Task: inverse folding
């Protein structure tokens, strides 16, 4: 990370089934200084992209078809490549269902961003996750 751009070298994968939401989040990430952002439209494509690009952080919608965020996270966490399996995931959702929250905690979700996502909340959550990674 450089002083001029604290997000230098950060790679983010956005997994979201609604293209307009995906593009908006990508645009906000670029506005805060993250230059490398990849996209996927569901959990299956997201897993393929995670394996291909090895992101620093993943932002993942919970409710998608055919592979939703919960299934994506389960599939990610059991990968043989431990570095990818432990990639921080932030759920994008308006879902506060107890089962989803419990699942997220049990599978080490790095946090929630409630839709509609604001750039202030996005930056705060990304910064918190990156700070946690730096402390590892």
Result:
């Amino acid at each position: 990370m450089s002083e001029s751009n604290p997000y230098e070298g950060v790679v983010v994968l956005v997994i979201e089934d609604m293209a307009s939401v995906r593009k908006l989040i990508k645009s906000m990430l670029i506005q805060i200084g993250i230059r490398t952002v990849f996209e996927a439209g569901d959990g299956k494509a997201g897993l393929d992209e995670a394996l291909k690009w090895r992101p620093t952080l993943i932002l993942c919608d919970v409710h998608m078809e055919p592979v939703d965020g919960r299934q994506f996270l389960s599939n990610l966490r059991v990968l043989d490549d431990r570095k990818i399996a432990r990639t921080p995931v932030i759920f994008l959702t308006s879902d506060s269902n107890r089962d989803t929250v419990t699942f997220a905690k049990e599978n080490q979700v790095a946090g929630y961003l409630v839709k509609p996502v604001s750039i202030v909340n996005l930056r705060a959550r990304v910064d918190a996750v990156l700070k946690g990674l730096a402390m590892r």
Q: What stands out?
A: The beta strands are 11-15, 36-40, 57-61, 89-93, 111-114. The chain has one domain: 11-41+48-134. DSSP finds six helices and five strands in the chain.
